Amino acid sequence: MAGFSMSHMQPNLESLLEQLWAKHLASITGRISLLRQSQEQLSDCHSNPALRNEAAATAHKLAGVLGTFGLEEGTQLALFIEQQMESNEAPDPLELKHAIEALSQMVETRSLSH
Q1: d(Cα 58, Cα 37) in Å, to the nearest integer?
Q2: pLDDT digits (tens, 9 = 90+) for 21-38
Q3: CA distances (Å), 73 to each of 13, 97, 104, in order?
Q4: CB 96 within 8 A of CB 42
């Protein structure tokens, strides 16, 4: 392919990623809200396996989608939350709260900067 350049694809790829981000932002923020609600319920000693399983699955999905958009730190935070929810021991409510807030801030910052 003579004359083909990846630099010509870069603006289109970035544009496509921005469109995908906008399309999935409501889902991403909804998942973060679910994690926040789960963390609050767990910290109030209303821990139940179904809630923890749902939160772990939600965090797992977030880890994947955030990685797609290049938010590696967000992926790591989501994986941390997933591991906490899957643990046989009770998650540390303060650690969970900080991780969820950092995740929320990261998504908000990414949305505002693009």
Answers
A1: 12
A2: 999 999 999 999 999 998
A3: 22, 16, 12
A4: yes
Tally of CA atoms within 13 A in the half-sphere of 24 that contains its CB: 18
- Distances in Å between the Cα of 60 and the Cα atoms of 3, 15, 48, 65 are 41, 26, 18, 9
Our measurement of the distance from residue 6's CA atom to the centroid of its chain's CA atoms, rounded to an integer in Å, reads 29
Sign of CA dihedral 10, 16, 20, 22: positive
Alpha-carbon separation of residue 93 from 35, 59, 99 (angstroms): 12, 15, 10
What's the length of the chain?
A: 114
Reported as a single tens digit per residue, the pLDDT across 62-73 is 999 999 999 999
pTM, entire model: 0.83
Q: What is the arithmetic mean of pLDDT over 92-99?
A: 91
